[in-house]
């Protein structure tokens, strides 16, 4: 079991106490302790240990569970799939959905009779069983192999970062090109700070200028003008070496084999050469040494670039992968202020550690703990929280004279050509509020108080066609897919969300801030699972001593965000997923026992 630690100084890491959740009752009391990364217990959670151990592969073989787009009618239509294969799968999904719809029509009378006479819990169970029966009845005509290929042949996550790496190669140019509007917006306040900094004769650091008197409260709020390694362009890091040179080999073997050990000082590199050489050979050796130093440096970067970091949602170009388990996010004053407050709030264990600011080229970045650091083949899900994703200002602007956004109009048409009004079609543009509001109403945001923005599975394939999900049952199905019905993972998430719920109740930050567009990032691998609050770019403090309840619907002027409505929906859905996964497990136990 991998027990790699989080970087939190106050971190409390504890193993999940599976027994805290009664096997089939997910609403039972859970640990009130604060979890950060919850270790997924290897202990079996059901009594049929032997069977379960054997049946575990069959749980994992939810690989044969059809791709999500095929589980829920209509979802396969999303054109925003990440690769060609996904769109192929979507076509298959449509065909399958038509067939399924017909079959469902025929069975609906029988199904309704059966379902309406039951309690919600029984209803869910019966529904699940019916679905299972349908699939196992041989009438599910999807080519299971091709489903499998679809789900397991998505883009590798490293490809996702290629665009960003190109930008990395030349910070300044990248800044100008990528997401120019957003960059300028986010960094405009930083520009102001930079000017102040230049005027400051004491050479005060950027961080102290930005953070002012809050500096002392910060854990490591130091400026760190990232030094690129000499003679090194990041573009060269894409080069791969199949087998190391003997000298590198020697170094590798004498090192602790961690990638950081490759970041050698020149003294260390010198050691690989023998003494007693003449001046000529020393010069040659020196050149050789330098080239090896460069080589090793490149290797180091290459290795660090192969980290599993991925940006699942949000603005492309906003992030840079950094060294030492950190990611850099483009500076926003609003977000930096929030993170600053959060480091002194009960919510701190649920937020990536904030390490202050750093400049790279012309731009300023927020240094954040990399939540994927230490995870092996992480599986990630981004859930955008709240009953709305627009700020009230956006609505006010839309009424007065908001600029029309043709990009948003196009995104809208792509998802649903009939969505824009005749007027919007004519002007080929919509206001930002109109677009965001439409996104909220066509997803589960308005109804459930959150939506799944995207999921990345352990093979690196990314799926974003969850964004049209509207019902809790669909969310539950998505959670089962995302976790591959693994009970330990589901329980870890459930437990973590309950702990978050407690922390939110005690959080002065939460009471006094309107939290818009913030996400919960679910991350797990084979041994750990956790949920984190991220993205505070649209989270703003309330005026005076106003406080929010977060669990009531929004009405204009109230500034309520419905964050707790979303959290409660998620907890309920996770509980349902745990129930379903338990039944699945029980059934496979039974099947195992019946079969000789
Ligand atoms: O997810 P899609 O449908 O692409 O829409 C995005 C998200 O709503 C972004 O919100 P978030 O940052 O919460 O993900 C929002 O950014 P902001 O509202 O933060 O600016 C973008 O607005 P523009 O950045 O204006 O394009 C908008 O285009
Ligand atoms: N601290 C972090 N560690 C790891 N991944 C992160 C972290 N912060 C953000 N991400 C990744 O980046 C994505 C976008 O983050 P977010 O803060 O929402 O960006 P934006 O403000 O551009 O919307 C997330 O979905 C997640 O995949």
Structural features, described:
This protein has 596 residues and is α+β, with helices and mostly antiparallel strands. It contains 23 helices and 12 strands. The chain has helices spanning 49-60, 68-71, 84-116, 120-139, 144-152, 157-160, 162-169, 171-177, 180-199, 206-211, 246-254, 266-270, 279-305, 333-342, 392-400, 406-415, 422-427, 432-441, 445-448, 472-483, 487-505, 508-511, 563-594, and strands at 38-39, 319-321, 326-330, 354-360, 363-369, 379-385, 450-456, 462-463, 513-516, 519-524, 528-534, 538-541. The strands form 3 sheets. It has a 6-stranded antiparallel beta sheet with strand order 1-11-10-6-7-8. A 4-stranded antiparallel beta sheet has the order 2-3-5-4. A two-stranded antiparallel ribbon has the order 9-12. Strand 7 and strand 8 (462-463) form a beta hairpin. Helix 21 runs antiparallel to helix 23. It is globular and about 70 Å long. It starts with 37 loop residues before the first strand and ends with a helix. Bound molecules: inositol-(1,3,4,5)-tetrakisphosphate and adenosine-5'-diphosphate. Residues 182, 313-314, 389, 411, 432, 436, 439, 517, 537-538 line the site of inositol-(1,3,4,5)-tetrakisphosphate (4IP).
Name the features.
single chain; 4-stranded antiparallel β-sheet; 23 helices; 47% helix; binds inositol-(1,3,4,5)-tetrakisphosphate; binds adenosine-5'-diphosphate; Kinase; transferase; nucleotide-binding; IPK_sf
Q: What is the number of E strands? A: 12
- N→C terminal distance: 32 Å
**Shape, per Cα inertia axes:** globular
Strand order of the largest sheet: 1-11-10-6-7-8
- Counting H and I runs of at least 4 residues, what is the number of helices? 23
The gyration radius over C-alpha positions equals 26 Å
- Strand percentage lies at 5-15%
- Parts with pLDDT < 50 across at least 5 consecutive residues: 1-35, 42-118, 137-185, 188-279, 301-306
Bound molecules: inositol-(1,3,4,5)-tetrakisphosphate, adenosine-5'-diphosphate
Instruction: Calculate the mean pLDDT score and round it.
Output: 66
Largest sheet: 6 strands, antiparallel
Helix content: 40-55%
Q: What is the structural class?
A: alpha+beta
